[in-house]
Every structure is written in C-alpha cells, then in structure tokens.
Amino acid sequence: MGIKTLKSEIKTAGGNYKMQCTAGNNSIILDEPEELGGSNGGMNPGEALLSALGGCKYIIAKMFYQKFNINLIGLCIDVEGEIDMDALMNTVEKKNRNKDLKIGFSKITTKWFIDANNTKEEIGEFVEFVEAHCPMKDTIEDKPDFSVEVLGKKH
Amino acid sequence: MGIKTLKSEIKTAGGNYKMQCTAGNNSIILDEPEELGGSNGGMNPGEALLSALGGCKYIIAKMFYQKFNINLIGLCIDVEGEIDMDALMNTVEKKNRNKDLKIGFSKITTKWFIDANNTKEEIGEFVEFVEAHCPMKDTIEDKPDFSVEVLGKKH
What we know:
By secondary structure, chain A is an alpha+beta fold. The first copy, chain A, is built from four helices and six strands, in the order E-E-E-H-E-H-E-H-H-E. The first copy, chain A, has a three-stranded antiparallel β-sheet, with no helix packed on it. Chain A has a two-stranded antiparallel ribbon with strand order 4-5. In chain A, helix 1 packs across helix 3. Strand 4 of chain A pairs antiparallel with strand 1 (about 5-10) of chain B, so a sheet runs across the interface.
C-alpha cells in the first residue's frame, strides 16, 4: 500500500471559532466552549485529539483481539488529557510565550474498560500490545517532521 | 483557570470499527474506510488528529490576528500527514512490530491559505507566531506523559 497521505481541510463554519474539518466525504465540526469565546458547536481541538488517539487504540484493539484469543464482550476507552489553561491564556494576553510553561497536554491517561472472559494477565498483555502498536500514539510519542507553507487565498 | 482535564469517551457505534467519541455534550463518529474493513461512517483517527491539529491552529490564528494587525478576509488551513500503510499492515499481519518502520505519521504539512491585506512578511511573522503557540502542535512536538489503566466492564 506504500505511503498514504491523509488530509483534513479546515474552514469557517460561522462565528468566532466554529469550523468544519473535511476529509474526503466525511466532516466534523470543531468549536470552543462559550467561556472561551466559542459557541460550543462541537468538540474543541483538544478533545478531538484525544478522540483521535483513543479511536486509533480502539481500532487496533478490534483488529487484534482475536489473534490474542480475547473473548471480547465489550470495549470502551476513555482518554483524559491535562492542560494548563493559564499557560495558554497567558500566551493570549501577553502575545508572548513563557517557554517554561507547557501549553499543550502535559499528561494523557487512557482508561481501558474491557469486558472479556480472560485472565487479568491475558488482558494486560493484549493492552500492552495495542499501546505499542497504535499509529496515533506513535505519532505523538515519536514526533513527525513538521512542514509549513504560507499560501494566498484558496480557490 | 489552572489545570483543566479534557476527556473523550469512546464506544462502539456498530460494525467493525465505527465508534462514537463523546466529550461533554458533543460527539463525533470515527470509522475506517471500506478497504480497511470499516464502513466509512466517519473520518479515520488519522484524519481526526490532523483536524485537531489544524483546528487548534485555526483557533489560535483567530485569537491573535487582530493583535498582529492582520486585515483578515479569509482563512483556510489544510493539514496533510504521510503514513506508511505497509508498516501498519505488516504489524497487523505478523502481530509483531518492526521497530525500524514508523507506524504513525512521518511528516505533517500545514498549508495556510490566508487572504489578507498585508505584506508577505507580516503574514509570515503571524503564521510563525501561531505555529509556535498552538497547544496541539506542542502536544505532538513535546510529548506528554502517558498513563494507562486497565479496568473492567464500564458501568
């Protein structure tokens, strides 16, 4: 299959921050909550990143559970991220970043709710495998190269 | 505002991979395309991560453009990520990861389409600022601590 390029196109969906993100024939709406100046028309980008990470783990788990002989009855995954809002707001106010303060997530916790007829050890081994083979976790753990292009009006 | 915990809860939405990700009162549906065993009921997690990253840049840009005296007429952001599908599929087939192959995004390109009555230098300085102050880019560039908890059936 080789190298594949995935893409999301972001444009306004009205209001301050509400936006439509489109990939192929699928779209999601992102926004900020009202206390941050948005209209709560959708998740914020932080919640979308946690969804992407947890969603990727969910898919890898569904791809592999049979190979690990997991008798899966139910699977839910909660992903929580801790973010220092003061560090971000400080940036906004002062137009200058304090490099000592982390503005992104400082900690991400994944809670695996697995209902399966297996031992704790079997489930633990399975989760460990998925955690080590999740492309979106790999993206965050082992950062990609970043490239930026500044272009004019989009046609 | 202090440390805030954002959260996404992921559960099945039917089929192989289709899932509902819920944060507060907002939800998105993620899935895989048909060629990868899904039903194309929504973006895949890679596209969602690119949306989260681009969406965060979009919001920071909207927060700051006036402070940079950008006379903004229109803003669209495209985010593209390159991923080696063979590296991932190899993992799936062999149940064993080749550590030499990167399974996540190896490169992420952001294309800024800015329509504004400003000089190229002014726009360049503005984009540089946003790129350096985007919490989701910071999350990927400077990885957070990861924590994993394995729990039973979710109530």
